[in-house]
Structures are given as C-alpha cells and as structure tokens.
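Can't paste images in this forum, so I'm doing it all in text. The chain is below; anyone willing to post the predicted structure tokens underneath?
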Amino acid sequence: MLTIDFKRLDLQPGDRVLDLGCGEGRHCISAYILHEHIDVVGVDLSQKDLSTAQQRFQDFAEAENPNKQFALFCANGLALPFADNSFDKIICSEVLEHIPDYKAMLGEIDRLLKPDGLLAISVPRSWPEKICWQLSEAYHLVKGGHIRIFKADALHREVETYGLSRYARHWAHALHSPYWWLKCLFWEKGDEQWLVKTYHRMLVWDLMKKPWLTQNLERLLNPILGKSVVMYFKRDASL
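Text version of the structure:
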C-alpha cells in the first residue's frame, strides 16, 4: 500500500533515494522495483521492521544488475550516518507524527537533500486523526504511537523555512479512515471484533485485487476523506 505517488517524485536514472522511517519497506522496495538505474537506502529504528523489509526485498533483488543498489540501515533519524547533500530524493512517510523532536528530523532531511533534490512527506490528515484520538485514548498512547496531530498548512510552512517550496499535494487512503474509526471505537475488543475484521478483509481484498469500483471510489473520496496528506517539495532557487 503506497502513500507516496512516485510519478510526482520524478525518479530519474542514477538517483540516490532515502526512505527515512522505512518500516517494513513498502516505499523503498517499490522505488527499487520502479527504476532500472537507482540506489535506494531505507532507514528505520526498528530492527524487527528492517528484518521484515529485507525478507520482502529478496523476492525483487536483481543482483545481476550493477545499476541497482539497495541497502537498509538501523539508525536514529536525528543523526543519520550519511554525508551532506547525498540524496536526490527523500521520502518521509507517516513518520513525523511519531517523533518528539520532529524539527530535528527536518533538519537532517535538509542536510542530506541535494540542492536540486525533491522531498515527499506524508502525515495523518488532521480531522480524521482527531476522530481517532477522540474515540480511543489508547490509539495515541500506545508505545510508538502518534504523539501529535499535524495541521498540513502549518507543516507546509515549517518545511518551507528550510528553503523548500511545495510543488504538489494530494490525499490518500480514504477507505482507511472508516476502518481506523471502527478500530478505535472497538479498541478494547481488538481486531477480532466482527465489524473491524470484516472491514479489514475488504481492505485486503481491495489491495490485492484492485477492483475498478473501490479504486475509483477511493480516488473520488481522497480529497474529502483521505486519511493521509502527502506533500512534495523542491529547493526554492530564490532562497
């Protein structure tokens, strides 16, 4: 399930791409698959998630292709082990809402991004997220959970202070908003609650089969109901 639209990120031959907070690898593996000449790096604090990402990557590895590189690192996003200006594209998807000092992470992104680089950031959209918080305190108090609700315009302005300008924005995962509301409403009963379980089955079916009806329904609903807001930035040459 991709949140970032790679068409908007404009991957080019020879790009070095960083997926910061890569989790189980959905975006970094997809970037590797999508291009014949690319160097992809995924970073996360969770060794468990990185192990899962490495296992998933094995099905797509092209060891015989010298133009494609893939690497995973366990590292702190506030002090990354890479040189300044070392990445053409940086992805930070559904990460900043977990980070106490998220501004320090933005500073690291700014340090690592090349002068002509592009950045894709996604965070939970504020109003669907507020409903989750209201329905379940445990939703955001769970270890590693969401510790803040971002307002997209405010985050946009913060990113711009690093000399970046937004060139695209969209919303994603409209069909997932009701699922998380149901999950929060029945939090104590867990994933086996019949309504939560049934809705989850529908989401898995949609992800695997990609039926015309639900795919187009989500596209229509994303501007209204999308659970995530996705923003794309480039260096502002005037700054």
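The chain has one domain: 13-173+227-235. The longest strand covers residues 113-124.
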